[in-house]
């Protein structure tokens, strides 16, 4: 009963001449497109036109689609009536937009365990970085302590819903409660959480949520920042140009209030439609998605735990609630070579490296001879056969080591 992804006929040529279907364990980076998303995009493609810019029939229809997509995303995260949805390129863009809107005298508090997208955009001189926490209670206490020491003025606490490295879920509501008690606002990076668990702004009592369509089973190019309007309406527009303007004369410009202020230029209407269609499908199938992933994750973690020489890494501990991501190393085999062998010999796609979370990976691997790890992240495209294939491949690598030489050159920008 899980929503169908677009059927993939991707066959992987293996080193021994066989071919196999691709076992995608990289959902945490980008997830495959849903059938219903493809259908929504295909329906819009023949007749889309400019948004908020024309009185022609196609323009008016497209404007409706765009605003309907905005309403769907608003509902997807349980936003308050007066919260606004600003379409962005992805989570990175959404968090950078919020960073530009943080008042000049604000203090920002952020854990070092964040993805770089949530760690780096904030003004350095006014940001307090907290060490990666080791328990939920320690995370809440660290935020409370930092807020107690923060100067007067506006405050923003930035937290990640689920770690992109370990999949572990942070105590969002507890941190938000402490933040509120100290007059702080909270921004939730939901890039990894939203595809797997309900994110409800009101229940969590957070002020902003950032997310990416391409991790939510929609194609690239659209994400959103959802939340309070006041800081954003007071900030300079993100992109200066058409759409952001209410009136322009020779010597003065009046900028729009609301989402338009930060959506300068012609919007990515097809991206917004795709994102909204993904939100609708995920909302409809929430329970089934969670069940599917919980059972595959348990199978994967149990399988890996039984293999000598395999080390898994957690921020909070093995019992922490988590989405379908596992971070591991194999004794004696570098993570780059593990991922190369998994791909060439088994048709399995994982990610290796530091996952755009260098401080966290440094902290997790502090006692390990390895500098990088392997991340396997499952999702709607994952089957039991894929999990069993991964476990048996890891067992073989841990037991026999590498039997073939692979190029150890990093295949990306030390990601
Ligand atoms: N935050 C987290 C937790 C992520 O996992 C990612 C993507 N890996 C991002 C932010 C950035 O997302 P995007 O690349 O879509 O901007």
UniProtKB/TrEMBL annotation:
Keywords: Aminotransferase, Pyridoxal phosphate, Transferase
One GO MF term: transaminase activity
Chain ranges of the Aminotransferase class V domain: 25-390
InterPro entries the record matches: Aminotrans_V_dom, PyrdxlP-dep_Trfase, PyrdxlP-dep_Trfase_major, PyrdxlP-dep_Trfase_small
Matches recorded under Pfam families: Aminotran_5 (PF00266)
Cofactor list: pyridoxal 5'-phosphate
Keyword Transferase assigned: yes
Residue intervals passing through the bilayer: none
PANTHER family: CYSTEINE DESULFURASE, CYSTEINE DESULFURASE 1, CHLOROPLASTIC
Descriptive protein name: Aminotransferase class V-fold PLP-dependent enzyme
Organism: Kribbella koreensis
Taxonomic path: Bacteria, Bacillati, Actinomycetota, Actinomycetes, Propionibacteriales
